[in-house]
């Protein structure tokens, strides 16, 4: 329990549907304490149908300073922000909201930045490398954008949802930073190989890509936190690849979110 919880404590929510699986409330609350702030993070289970009403209601409480956003609300919450960072506006997705001076919400997206920082922590350098990204959803889009900004020489995106993949490829190509193309499940020829899909969470899942074609010089990363070591990452390690896990990413994302919520 938060030792100093009182009427003066500042409230931050983490909103999702479902929410029972999230581990962040304890870590974020601890991070606030480490920064000397009397603040807590509280889970809120809200369905998509009630999200806008819930945000309006939560906004009425003058001691609510922030909202962390998880699945499936990252796209919808963008529309509930009065202002966003350029990154969040480009992606049309947010994972953290803090108050503007007038009480409205300002949103930003840290999944991509956190992923790239965790890559670098684990010896993966995106600049000048060819990257294959599997998954064009919320996290995948953010990671794709962060890789382009971090200077990959080429990015290929693979997602079975043609419409979603094509939209992301075209928008990233429009930045004119590097060639962005439609990838496949074959990682041959890439330096960096990333799974940004939920494939690998269940024991019965197939691999998200052709792991038999991985080789030791590739850097492999995954966004999944449970299991801690996904079958994809286990296969990559067996091939001698350097790797990073979802836990590495989310530790970095949490630090970025806390700094943002504290206005640092």
N-to-C SSE series?
Answer: EHEHEEHEEHEHEHEEEHEH
Distance, first to last CA: 26 Å
**Would you count the extended β strands for me?**
12
Count of DSSP helices? 8
Which structural class fits the helix and strand makeup?
Answer: alpha/beta
Approximately how much helix is present in the residues?
25-40%
**Shape designation:** globular
Largest beta sheet: what is the strand line-up?
A: 2-1-3-5-6-4
Low-confidence segments, given as residue ranges, are none
> Main beta sheet, described?
6 strands, mixed
Overall mean confidence score, pLDDT: 96
Strand percentage, roughly? 15-25%
> What's the alpha carbon Rg, rounded to whole Å?
19 Å
Can you walk through the features of this model?
This protein has about 260 residues and is α/β, with parallel strands linked by helices. The protein is about 30% helix and about 20% strand. The protein contains eight helices and twelve strands. It has helices spanning about 25-35, 50-60, 85-90, 110-120, 140-150, 160-175, 230-240, 245-260; strands at about 10-15, 40-45, 65-70, 85, 95-100, 105-110, 130-135, 155-160, 180, 190-195, 220, 240-245. Strands 2-1-3-5-6-4 form a six-stranded mixed β-sheet. β5 (about 95-100) and β6 form a beta hairpin. α4 packs across α5 and α4 packs across α8 (about 245-260). It is globular, with a radius of gyration of 19 Å. It starts with 9 loop residues before the first strand and ends with a helix.
């Amino acid at each position: 329990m938060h030792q100093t919880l009182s009427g003066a404590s500042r409230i931050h929510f983490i909103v999702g549907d479902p929410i029972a699986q999230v581990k962040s409330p304890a870590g974020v609350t601890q991070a606030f304490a480490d920064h000397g702030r009397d603040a807590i993070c509280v889970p809120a289970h809200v369905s998509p149908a009630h999200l806008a009403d819930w945000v309006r209601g939560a906004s009425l409480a003058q001691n609510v300073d922030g909202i962390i956003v998880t699945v499936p609300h990252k796209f919808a919450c963008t529309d509930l922000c009065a202002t966003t960072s350029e990154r969040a506006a480009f992606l049309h997705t947010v994972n953290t909201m803090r108050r503007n001076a007038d009480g409205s919400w300002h949103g930003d997206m840290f999944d991509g930045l956190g992923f790239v920082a965790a890559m670098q922590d684990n010896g993966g350098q995106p600049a000048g490398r060819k990257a294959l990204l599997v998954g064009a959803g919320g996290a995948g889009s953010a990671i794709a954008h962060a890789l382009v900004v971090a200077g990959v020489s080429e990015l290929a995106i693979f997602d079975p949802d043609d419409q979603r993949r094509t939209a992301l490829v075209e928008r990233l190509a429009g930045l004119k930073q590097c060639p962005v193309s439609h990838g496949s499940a074959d990682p041959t020829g890439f330096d960096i190989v990333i799974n940004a899909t939920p494939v690998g969470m269940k024991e019965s899942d197939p691999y998200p890509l052709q792991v038999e074609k991985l080789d030791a010089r590739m850097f492999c990363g995954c966004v999944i936190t449970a299991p801690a070591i996904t079958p994809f990452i286990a296969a990559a390690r067996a091939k001698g690849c350097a790797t990073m896990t979802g836990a590495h990413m989310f530790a970095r994302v949490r630090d970025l979110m806390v700094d943002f919520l504290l206005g640092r």
